[in-house]
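User: Please run a holo structure prediction.
Assistant: Happy to. Please share the sequence and the ligand.
User: Here you go; the ligand is NAI.
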Amino acid sequence: MTSDNTGTVQLAVIPGDGIGQEVTPEALKVLEAVDSGVKFEQTHYDLGAENYLRTKEVLPPTVLAEIRQHDAILLGAVGGKPNDPDLPPGILERGLLLKLRFELDHYVNLRPSRLFPGTASPLADPGDVDFVVVREGTEGPYTGNGGALRVGTPHEVATEVSVNTAFGVERVVRDAFARAERRPRKHLTLVHKTNVLVNAGSVWWRLFEAVAAEHPDVTTDYMHIDAAMIHMTVNPSRFDVIVTDNLFGDIITDLAAAITGGIGLAASGNVNPDRTAPSMFEPVHGSAPDIAGQQVADPTAAILSTSLLLDHLGHADAAAAVEAAVLADLSDRRPGTTRRTSEIGDAIAARL
Ligand SMILES: NC(=O)C1=CN([C@@H]2O[C@H](COP(=O)(O)OP(=O)(O)OC[C@H]3O[C@@H](n4cnc5c(N)ncnc54)[C@H](O)[C@@H]3O)[C@@H](O)[C@H]2O)C=CC1
Ligand SMILES: CC(C)CC(=O)C(=O)O
Ligand SMILES: [Mg+2]
């Protein structure tokens, strides 16, 4: 998919905050180096904590409307230092990141986890880990539904309501079954907490079962979220495709990253499968204020996110080339040696 007939892709780039500013240029370096047959025309958007502190604006409607006109979005990370008194809690996470995901209907948050050859896992015997988490991206407890009463008093009550619509659950479950069907193992696991979150759990379970009946070739199972974390730590190779809600998917995928070489390698796509708006590609990690500005962040996750972007735009060969370049770089990494963020980007781009 390109925006015109000249093979030009309109790419919105939002480096964001912290290490987002450092890893995004490396991802762009790789996107420019790979032979995809198309030209990426980039528009950079200065959005994030610094922009907010300067302008008191997070995502003006005109900017959102402009971003919507692009073919795809590449995002670094957003979020300031924890508990910064100048940043209202969640203002960037909810006002920018989730706003983009919700407004652009990124209902499939795709997070693949593979233990690439030569990559170290903290698990002694991880096995052949290759699974993908299909995280619902527009509902759950992240919709901002809730509130607080009697704030600051001993009688304070705070709620965050998890929203789960039949429409929202069914479409992501259908996407997960379709993905499972295309994979060799054809196995799908629903992860939830149906024993306690009975209302949300019920709609997830019923729709999962209903869609399963249409996919007799996909084997299925169910795990409660807590038990799923045991299995992911003890025997992660058992998973193929996991479908789950927005919050569980957020948490699972940080663990998934940790067991497959670290958060610096975990890529993601916020996908609008209906293509009614641009999809957005970003590393799983955040802005990492603890290491920002030091050129020590690993840009591999951001670089692998461009592989997901290329694949989404229909450039499967270029996507595979980026992944192959990353794999080659990973297998050359030696424990105890460190490279700057830009050196890793240079090395991967050079392989293309
Ligand atoms: N998609 C996004 O934009 C996300 C934004 N955030 C925001 O980012 C800020 C920091 O959040 P945290 O919870 O600390 O999560 P984080 O993912 O930014 O950092 C967690 C830990 O992983 C390390 N880390 C992260 N990326 C790395 C990389 N590429 N290479 C090496 N080490 C890396 C960090 O140094 C830190 O120790 C917060 O404001 C949070 O809301 C968090 C997650 C996702
Ligand atoms: C900062 C959150 C809104 C997002 C997050 O942690 C994630 O998508 O992984
Ligand atoms: Mg997260």
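DSSP finds eleven helices and twelve strands in the chain.
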